[in-house]
Amino acid sequence: VQLVESGGGMAETGSSLRLSCVASGRTSGFAGLGWFRQVPGKDREFVAAIAWSGLSKYYADSVKSRFTISKDVDKNMIYLQMNNLKPEDSAVYYCVANFGAGADWWRSGYGYWGQGTQVTVSS
User: Fold this and answer.
1) Strand partners, 120
2) Cα(61)–Cα(120) distance, rounded to whole angstroms?
């Protein structure tokens, strides 16, 4: 599975950005896709995930109500609409894929990662 992110960049506090991720290669059998982020010197942080079948979506508390994850199964793409951005949202954002199973698939098991896209939010 190859994952390629796009849409990162510079933004001002309170503004919006939309990240995109396209998956290629083995794209059948996904439990879901999602987004993590990482700041230098810190662990990678779960941001959001979306089930590839069905309507389930999952968010970190820090982004709930501001970020929205969506998908286009026909295009093998997911998106992350980020609204009301804050300086603490600055990070490298990674698209991830999960082939897990069960109701808790989204909690772990992200075995495929994109190269990341930088988001920088100025105050």
Assistant:
1) 10
2) 20
Backbone dihedral angles phi then psi of residue 104, each to the nearest 5 degrees: -100, 20
Q: What is the pLDDT of residue 26?
A: 87
> Chain-centre distance of CA 75, in angstroms?
16
Q: For the chain, give the DSSP string.
A: -EEEEE--EEEETT--EEEEEEEESS-TT-SEEEEEEE-TTS--EEEEEEESSSS-EEE-TTTTTTEEEEEEGGGTEEEEEE-S--GGG-EEEEEEEE---STTGGGS-EEEE---EEEEEE-
Q: What angle do CA 78, 109, 47 make, to 5 degrees?
A: 45
Tokens encoding 1: 């599975």
Asked if 82 contacts 16 with a C-beta cutoff of 8 angstroms, the reply is yes
pLDDT tens, residue by residue, 45-80? 999 999 999 999 999 999 999 999 999 999 999 999
